[in-house]
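MOLECULE: protein
FOLLOWS: sequence and fold
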Amino acid sequence: MESIVGPLTADSVSEIAFVLDRLEHADGDLIELDLSRVSRVDSAGVALLSVFLRRLRTQGRRIEIVNPSPEIEQTLRLFPFVDAPPRRATERPPALERLGSTAQLVAEVFIEFVMLAADTAWFMLGGLFRRRGIRWSVVVFEMSAMGSRALGVVGLIAFLVGGTMALQSAAQLRQFGANIFVVDLIGISMARELGPLMAAIVVAGRSGSAVAAELGTMMITEEIDALRTMGLHPVRFLLVPKALAISLTQPLLTVFANVLGIFGGFLVAILYLDVSPSAFLSRLREAMLLKDVITGLVKSVVFAQLIVTVGALCGFRTKGGADAVGRSTTTSVVAGIFAVIVADAVASMVFYFGD
């Protein structure tokens, strides 16, 4: 192994050439060149290594560069005609250290989520009582994007789920002559759980991802920094209209999902279970309580805030390029659906525990 001492630059090319000539006449097919004592390198030094490398390759030999500093290694990798040193395998940190890093990251994300939710609530409630505090034209546009354009998907899914539930329960109910109780099953489950949950999952995949992609792209293109430079708070300018729009449209989507889901069960009941329309509607009025409907609407507002806040958090945390925007969008969908399901479980225990 031969070492190069000092700078590998244009000023020291003659001295380095003497060392390389001596290496060329050494025995063996593999020549190791130690760069641990090289202070700096420039393009002239790398060009000299390139000439030396090509000369060795014509002789059927090869050179291996070992122990470079990180700066020199980075410079060598810019020149593909030089065999850059293999990357050093990084040791995996211990399990306890990985656990601590994960816990720290979770705590950091949770704190950012709470602060973002607090800022959104502050600006949204403050804007409602301030003249020209809310850009209502933007709110209407966001309501169209998040609400009306999602009606088809939400309605179709709710209708199919309601009909499927009625069909699945029909086989069991008919054994006991309890066909009429399909009304209780469809009406209560849609109003309490499935209506708000299905609408929220669809909106999380559709609108939550759009929020994350939009804000993530703005982070990459430094538009968020430009807003701060102009004295505009990103949460107040960008997020508040979305939060207000989804808070208004999500309960309406939930009611729409409830109606379509019950209608799907209604068709199955009258066509397959021989339940008359009047008996279905009469039983529905007896089985469903106002509490069931109000609970679903309250949950839908909570779900809406979780969806838009999670999407915004993923967008604001985007760093890198286009691939980072894709990762943020995917993360927002997964995290949004997970947050909705957890919130639904907590709400179910709060509203119905002990009933």
DSSP finds twelve helices and five strands in the chain. The longest strand covers residues 30-34. The chain has two domains: 2-77, 106-352. The mean pLDDT is 83.
